[in-house]
Amino acid sequence: MPLPRPAEGEVVVTTPRAARRRRELRMVAVFVVAALPVAAVVWLIVNAPAAVLYVVAQTLFLWFGFRRRADPLLRLSPTGISYEPGRFQVRCEWADVDSIGTVTLPDAGEVEALILSVSALHWAADEPVRREAIARGWDRAVPIGSFEPEWEWGRIGDAVRTWAPWIFDLPDA
């Protein structure tokens, strides 16, 4: 999928291709393993080719749905930050960044994040997603480490140096 076109003076960053590929392969393996119990029953009732066909069909179906998911997106602009993981959006101004800490994400584990002083949840797909984002603290964090693990030296670091250099002097959370 092509990157969204950035607005004038905006930096748009997505997760690295290698990380997306690893997550995709891990999910395909989970889909295959999840299909095996039903395939065993199909094998016993019908035959082996039908069981193999079932595993392939289910895996392709689930893989297609997984690929339709939106990739996380980080937008940095002179006015602030927008983090869009797909089911909700965190949007804030640079002045709302309070510290640098870590946050635990379902796909990436613990990553470095900009911790915000207030909740900046702009929208959520539905009420359960909103409650989960608030309960896990995702409404007050922008996980920049999931986009660039060494973000200080990449495009994110360049944007921070340009628009909010004081962030590098913030305490760790």
List the helices and strands and how they pair.
Layout: E1 11-14, H1 17-45, H2 48-67, E2 73-76, E3 80-84, E4 88-93, E5 97-105, E6 109-116, E7 121-124, H3 127-135, E8 141-142, H4 155-163
Antiparallel strand pairs: 1-2, 2-3, 3-4, 4-7, 5-6, 6-8
Helix pairs in contact: 1-2
In short:
This protein has 173 residues and is an alpha+beta fold. The chain has helices at 17-45, 48-67, 127-135, 155-163, and strands at 11-14, 73-76, 80-84, 88-93, 97-105, 109-116, 121-124, 141-142.
The largest sheet, given as strand count, sense and whether it forms a barrel, is: 5 strands, antiparallel
| Total number of domains | 2
What sort of overall outline do the alpha carbons produce when their principal axes are compared? elongated
DSSP strand tally: 8
Order of helices and strands: EHHEEEEEEHEH
Can you count the helices? 4
Structural class given helices, strands, pairing?
alpha+beta
Radius of gyration: 20 Å
Main features:
173 residues, alpha+beta, five-stranded antiparallel β-sheet, three-stranded antiparallel β-sheet, 4 helices, 39% helix, elongated
Q: Your description of this structure?
A:
- The chain has helices spanning 17-45, 48-67, 127-135, 155-163, and strands at residues 11-14, 73-76, 80-84, 88-93, 97-105, 109-116, 121-124, 141-142.
- It folds into 2 domains: 16-67; 73-169, no CATH class.
- It has 173 residues and is an alpha+beta fold.
